[in-house]
Amino acid sequence: MQQPTYPNRAALDDALARLSKLPPLVTSWEVESLREQLAEAEAGKRFVLQGGDCAESFADCAPDTITNRLKVLLQMSLVLVHGLQGPVTRIGRFAGQYAKPRSADTETRNGVTLPAYRGDIVNAPDFTEAARVPDPERLLQAHALSAMTMNFTRGLIDGGFADLHHPEYWDLAWVKHSLLAADYQKRVDAIGDSLRFMETLAGGAIHEFSRVDFFTSHEALLLDYEAAHTRTVPRKSGWYNLSTHFPWIGMRTAALDGAHVEYCRGIRNPVGVKIGPSIDIDWLLGLCRALNPDNEAGKLVLIHRMGAAKITEHLPRLIEAVRGAGHKALWLCDPMHGNTQSTSTGIKTRKFDDILAEVNLAFDLHRTNGSRLGGVHLELTGEDVTECLGGARDLTEKDLERAYRSTVDPRLNYEQALELALEIVSRQRR
Ligand code: PEP
Ligand code: MN
């Protein structure tokens, strides 16, 4: 399901052959290290922050966009580390998040019908016949741009950008005049004090505070692309998808007898799967069995995306079923995709309050059902966009006209994203 129809099969095969010979984007060691961290999160010892664009665009592979996104994720994780009093695993929804599932195969505007835009890895968003033709050369471009994104991200992190001693590196221009500035600065100062205290006790700098891990993830949608990156590794058994640390299966392609589950059950990477309100118990338990056949900790991540209005009705029975069957899984809440709505003028948006309400309900429902919410999955950007309504600046429908840039789903802007982290810890403090 959800695969493009390429006009020229030979050109596709040629592109895939070239792709499968290129170096991987991640290594099996990193994949194993993420699995260990996810197992710790499952055991309640960590929290997972997964976030980034709904759809990366090729044009967004630019230094400012990458650093700003990294900054906001680092700021959020600092707030979460401090507020939840525990380590946070950061997983970017980037360096490969280029393919998008679509509800319809075609799009009609003013009486003209064209094939749907399926993400920059397939075709272009412009509403012209030529732009919408799937182009296999885009597979190679996606690989190259993912590699550049990762190279820059790794360079920044290894060079000290993520050093907890220097949170000022992550300041975005707005921090000074934000309504949230005081709250954020209080946490930065508190962490600085703790660091100095511990390093005094330890008699010197503690290396662990100078660098952080950053993992990548994307929806494993375009199976030709994923397969071209699926490799064996010397001295390790099994297959690894080396295009990303953490692939996930989208809600539209999670059928038990579908190709995406069939592909993902064969790889060693931890695998996520999106769970919506239409899931039933047999389907969910079937996914657990297929995607984590050896019932290993850190292997399966269930990402529920119910919507604030539906989560209370659906989540408890799912938690109960998974626990009852003895399946190991990490639970994440995606509070974005169940809360999408259209404005009166037909713009896709989400309300900050719905997003926050779903996250808080997820924490509470897991707790009252003897489970634990292990993290959040968010669509956000480090840019000053106006795509979601509400937040501290109370963005209105009128504001959406100012800076709506997403080609697919509305993202939290940097300030809304940080506010969400601050709100989460103010209610969920352990
Ligand atoms: C997404 O994560 O962008 C997405 C399409 O989500 P879902 O599969 O949950 O609808
Ligand atoms: Mn999305």
Characterization of this structure:
It is a single chain. By secondary structure, the chain is an alpha/beta fold. 37% of the residues lie in helices and 14% in strands. Strands 1-2-5-8-9-10-11-14 form an 8-stranded parallel barrel, surrounded by 4 helices. It has a two-stranded antiparallel sheet with strand order 3-4. β3 (106-109) and β4 form a beta hairpin. It is globular, with a radius of gyration of 21 Å. The protein binds phosphoenolpyruvate (PEP) and manganese (II) ion. Manganese (II) ion binds at residues 54, 337, 379, 408-409. Manganese (II) ion (MN) is lined by residues 54, 337, 379, 408-409.
The average pLDDT value, as a whole number, equals: 93
Overall form: globular
* Major pleated sheet: 8 strands, parallel, barrel
Number of strands: 14
- The fraction of residues in strands falls at 5-15%
- What is the SS-derived class? alpha/beta
Strands of the largest sheet, in order across it? 1-2-5-8-9-10-11-14
List the bound ligands.
Answer: phosphoenolpyruvate, manganese (II) ion
Organism: Hydrocarboniphaga effusa AP103
GO molecular function, one term: 3-deoxy-7-phosphoheptulonate synthase activity
Binding site for Mn(2+): 54, 379, 409
Cofactor: Mn(2+); Co(2+); Cd(2+)
